[in-house]
Design goal:
Elements (H helix, E strand, L loop, with lengths): L2 H30 L7 H21 L8 H18 L4 H6 L1 H25 L5 H5 L1 H20 L2 H22 L5 H18 L3
Helix pairs in contact: 1-2, 1-8, 1-9, 2-5, 2-8, 3-5, 5-7, 5-8, 7-8, 8-9
Length: 203
C-alpha cells in the first residue's frame, strides 16, 4: 500500500467517525427536544457540522498529487461542460474533474466554519457560550492561516494541511455541542503526520 493510500484510508476513517459524531448529536437533540423547540443557535450548530462534514467527506476522495493552475482551469471548464450537458454531478464526474472539485469542497468546508466563527465569535460579546468556543477559535485561526496559501498554491501537501486543519476545527466545534465528541483528532493525527511526511516528498 502506498503512502497516499495509507493517508486516504486514515483520513477517510476520520471523516466517517466525525459524521458518526454528528449523527450522535442529531440523535441526542431529537430525543431530548422536538424539532420545533430547537433554538436558532442549535440549528445553526447542527447545520454547520453537517455541511462541513459532507464537504470534507467529498474532498477526501478527490485530493490529488498533481495540482497546478493549468489543470485547475482545465477541470473547471470540463466540470461546466458536464454540468451543462448532463445536468448531473456525481462521484465519477467529481473524480474526473478533481483538480477543481477538491478545491470546491475544501473551500466549502472552510466557509461553513468561517460563517459560524464570524457570527458567534467575531460579532458576539463575550459570553459563557463564546468562552466555550475558545478551543474551536484557536483551531479555526490555524485554518485561516492555511487557507489563503493552501487553496491558491494548488499543492498536494497544502491540500492535506487544509483538510486536516479544517477537520480538527470541526471536531473541536462538535465537542462543544456534544461533549462526548472529539475522538477523531486524538485517534489519527500521529498517523496522518507520518503519511504527510512521505507525501511531501512527492510534491
Amino acid at each position: 500500500m502506498s503512502a497516499k493510500q495509507e493517508w486516504l484510508v486514515s483520513a477517510r476513517s476520520d471523516v466517517q467517525y466525525f459524521l458518526l459524531e454528528i449523527k450522535h448529536a442529531l440523535h441526542q437533540h431529537s430525543v431530548t427536544q422536538k424539532q420545533s423547540d430547537l433554538s436558532k443557535r442549535q440549528i445553526h450548530f447542527l447545520r454547520t457540522l453537517a455541511d462541513c462534514g459532507f464537504s470534507l467527506w467529498r474532498a477526501v476522495f478527490l485530493i490529488e498529487d498533481s495540482f497546478d493552475k493549468d489543470t485547475l482551469v482545465s477541470d473547471m471548464s470540463k466540470f461546466m461542460d458536464l454540468l451543462i450537458e448532463d445536468n448531473a454531478i456525481n462521484y465519477p464526474q467529481d473524480k474526473a474533474t478533481r483538480h477543481f472539485s477538491a478545491s470546491y469542497y475544501l473551500t466549502s468546508a472552510v466557509q461553513r466554519l468561517e460563517s459560524f466563527h464570524g457570527y458567534y465569535i467575531v460579532d458576539e460579546p463575550e459570553t459563557e457560550f463564546t468562552m466555550s468556543l475558545k478551543g474551536f477559535d484557536a483551531k479555526f485561526h490555524r485554518v485561516k492561516e492555511l487557507a489563503a496559501k493552501s487553496l491558491s498554491e494548488q499543492s498536494y501537501s497544502n491540500y492535506i494541511e487544509i483538510f486536516e486543519a479544517t477537520l480538527e476545527a470541526a471536531v473541536a466545534l462538535s465537542a462543544v455541542l456534544c461533549p462526548a465528541a472529539g475522538t477523531v483528532s486524538s485517534k489519527s493525527e500521529a498517523r496522518r503526520a507520518i503519511y504527510r511526511t512521505h507525501l511531501r516528498g512527492s510534491d
